[in-house]
Amino acid sequence: MTRVGDWEPGDVVLGLYEVLDVVHSGGMGVVHRVRHRGWRVDMAVKTPRSKTVRTPTGRARFEAEAATWVKLGLHPHTVACAYVRTIDDIPRVFAEWVDGGSLAQAVSGRGLYAGGGRAALGRILDTAVQMAWGLAHAHEAGLVHMDVKPANVMLEPDGTAKVTDFGVAKARAAADESAPARPPDGPVGVSFGGMTPAYCSPEQASAAVDRSVRLTTATDVWSWAVTVLEMFAGGRPWRHGPAAGDALDAFGRDGGARDPRIPPMPADVAVLLRECFAADPAARPASLADVAARLCGLYPELVGAAYERPVPRPARLLADGLSNQALSFLDLGLIEEAEQLWSRALDTDPYHLPSVYNLGLHRWRSGRQTGEELVTDVEAALAADGGGPAGHGALLLGAAQLERHEDERAGELLREASAADPDSADVAAALTAWEHRPPRVHVGLDDHDADVSAVASSADGGLVLSGDRGGRLLLWAPARGRRRVRRTLTKRGQPVTAVAMDAAGTVGLAVRDGAAEVWDLGRGRRRELEKIDGDTAVTAVAVSGDGRYVATGSASGVIRIWESGTPRYVGTVDRHTGAISALALSHDGGRALSASFGGLMGDGDGTVRTWDVASRTCTATLVGPPRGTLGGSPVRKYPMDIAAVSPDARCAVVAWWRGPLTLWDARRLTVVSEVDHTWRSVGSLAVSSVGPTVVTAGDAGVPVQAWDATTGRCLRTLDQQLPSHGRWVRTATVSADGQVVVLGIGGGHVAVRSLPAADYQAPWCYARPRSAREVTGARDVFGELMDRVDGLTAQGRLSAAAEALRSAQEMPGFARHPDLRAAWARVGAHGRRSALLGAWPLYAFDGNGVFTRPLALAMTGDGLVSATGRWTGEVEVWDFAAGERLHVFDRGTGGGAQDIQFALDERLLVVLTAQGTVRLLSLTDGNMYLFTTELGAISAFALTPTDDRVLMGYESGDLRLLRLTTGEILREVRAHDGAVHTVALSPDGRHAATLGGIRPDVDLSGNPFVDHDVKLWSLDADRPRWALGSRARYERLDFSADSRTLFVSGGRSVGAWDVGDGALRFSVDRAGGTHVPGEPAIAFSADGALAATPDHDVLRVWATDTGQTRQTLRLPKTPQAFALSADGTFAITGDWDRQVRVWDVSSGRCLRTLESHRAPVYQATLNRDGTLLATADMDSRLCAWELAWDYTFPPESPE
């Protein structure tokens, strides 16, 4: 640990902080003046002596109290704490540097009294008022200073006074556990026990020897008065603060200070100080804000001039300050508070680069997002603002890529950052780490003729043993750059189902047809292991690190050990009750580690066991956490549980389904960590004890990823490094040293890739602190602009209002302020969208195992409220923008929701359930109602837009028009012989359209592509006006805005049919076959003038009156999800590539690509004004986005 005193003038700490001076050095700590080389700003660094924080409790208390200063925020009359940062394992407070020295220096040096007379009196009163204001701010924040004195009041050259050292005095007292309590009779000018004896109150002196004494803000009132008395006395003629009242009386009797430069104390000030020196704390002035007000009132009479300082306001932090606060709390271990602050910062500015980067880095390191998501978010923030200072964005992105081991991209970015800022220490450190990275292993082998089914590697990954389903068994040396096979052990035979090898790659073990065979890999010779009577098929194998022993695990749970050279049978261990799925031996063969997890066949016992081979005993067992009960007993295993053991038998990992990711130390027989995970459909799992690093893989829809097993952090996604045909991983192993992963891939391919090592950590991003005066001034200007916008909008001067908004947008820290965004939405409602200013995520919710599939989602027109269905039947109502749950409707009859719609001015939710019931959920009183009917299950419904009528189709083929409010049946007809699948109502409420089966059993035995028909009905008639035959089951029906056209979307086209006579007016081509529920078929603008439909690799936007194409949006693939804005100016698409794109319809340009989904996107929903967007993917992840727009307005007539 570096000693505090080791910082000397001229030193440069971390390549960033240049030490200019040692300002103060005392028994409790040191204050350095440093210059931040990046910002070219001086700062005060306050560092406690190591003895103060040498115990864990003392350190924790110091950090907690230092956090109180951070929480204090910005005020014109307190010294701002920029952040707390741990350097050399000591927490240090970085505060603003105040250049005019302390009040103590101004008193002793007599600078406070320059000019004498009224000038000096005015300066004293001004300082007293400012001190009172600063302390009052602290008191309002719940903080008692407890060490108020002239040395803790800093003065700017212009006379601004700032109270400093908040929380630090209290922290010193709390942390100095080893010092014996003693009364304040020693040196009186230095702090002791969280106070300075010469300035402390009577109750604080008592608290020094009696810890039960409780201190309040009244103790600061006393110390403030002592400090004021010292300003009038020109020194301190008393030893102890509790005697200050007597000293005030003596001072009055003696006629004041003897120095002629010091003005006498006015009588009214003396009266005020006597009140502050009341022995009873409750009798002192209750508020220093009131004390300041009294002095302000006295000032004109005493000084002969008006007091010009306005009453200060606390400066609300902008994103920069909030992010720095968050870093301080993170450094102090206050993780929840840090995340809340970053959330507030991103509410203020969704693209604030330090917050996006810091929060993303924190979430990635804690396993709650991927490195890819971090990079995507940082790139989006850089695109929005250009990266700030030269090279800064390149540094942050390059550092993140370097920690992700994306070395090629990291090198490009870091060289760019170095060229822009050659003196950056962070860039230099990152480039040094990059230059020392070992070459990446990127080797493949294609010599297998069938799918690779088993792989193993030597300890360093230098040799690989691989077998395939055709029986071929190969040995090769990828780490030495050799792509050709080193030895073909067998060319064909029974499928190889498992392999293992020793650390040096000299002994191998393979399994075919349930039997194991030992290989001398150097000579290519095979020996069969002895078949023991009663043995079942071998399912897993292992070789000790030294190659002396081999082991097999069987389908019956028996583990047998042999000497490899003989091979002589050594013995059996037998406690598993299910098939062995993974097996390992320690280096000397003395310890075995096994897992029994059976996958979907359920033939594992769901445990991990470690064994002492010599005694043939099980030394420990890891079982799963209870996840429900069955027959009154806890359920501890599920078929979806998956486990792996490290090749050296040191550790095991288990991903419990609906449970944690558990890391187990097989040597210490203890659980090392349990973290949340979201792994699904993982087919291959491998682990190395180094790191420990875990690799997951599966079929083509499961990414190949490397993880930190202790945190659940995704270190890297390897998909992009794999051949395009090789995304289906059949088997995987990680070398014992954790350096490489070997993947056996479909198509006969083996891939060997480097794994990331923990050799570099990207730095945090601290924002340049801004003073309270700067922040308050900026807020005042911004507020004036917002007031101007409101005034101009009220006058109808929309273009001028927009210009004022653009001016506000240019202000640093306010470019995406929520007030600005809300104002743009208000003003923009009267204009036409012209440009996308930004699009950012509000939140993402992992709904796997929670939401219905597909997700049943409804959103109000303004986007403020949304509703989602749970698969268990509950319906949740949300504040959509905030992501806060407002209400949960309990599960009712019918199961999960299939369709949810708002009705009756969005006061009611209409929910169609999976079992064919309709529930009415009132948003006004929370009541639930159920539509019951003798007709059986309801299969579809449609709402009239202008009243309370609802059209319901039934599986019986019936059609009913009812009133939502009363349930009254208005019309009823037999619409189809089979079930009704789709219904639609025309906007004018006069017509209905239905799609249903042509006979009762059509859905069981018919052709779903032709055995249905579409019928057009007048709601006052009992027979259809016309019908279309040979239709598919899942076609969609929509009326045009003027109710004259029915659009039938299905097959390879959208047909526009005349409502009056059933004639086909035109058709529009679309991609794919039949429309499937949950997938979009068509989207309309709010006025119905435009529609959008997918075609091959495009989204086609066309006019609904003619079918003429207005724009073709060209995409990488045919979109799976899409939406059209209400005004038809922009479109949203989602696709298999997991990306959401925002398009300008007029130009056909992609305006923004949004990334947050981890599975293909299949749903997109926009609110009416196009500022809120909901998207969902096939893994039930729901993402909420905000879009900000610029607008154009009609020219304003001259006044």
From TrEMBL:
Keywords: Kinase, Repeat, TPR repeat, Transferase, WD repeat. WD repeats lie at residues 445-476, 538-572, 1121-1153, 1154-1187. InterPro entries: Kinase-like_dom_sf (IPR011009), Prot_kinase_dom (IPR000719), Quinoprotein_ADH-like_sf (IPR011047), Ser/Thr_kinase_AS (IPR008271), TPR-like_helical_dom_sf (IPR011990), TPR_rpt (IPR019734), WD40/YVTN_repeat-like_dom_sf (IPR015943), WD40_repeat_CS (IPR019775). SMART domains: S_TKc, WD40. It comes from the Bacteria. Residues 17-302 form the Protein kinase domain. SUPFAM superfamilies: Protein kinase-like (PK-like), Quinoprotein alcohol dehydrogenase-like, TPR-like. TPR repeats lie at residues 319-352. GO terms for molecular function: ATP binding; protein kinase activity. This is Protein kinase. It comes from Frankia nepalensis.
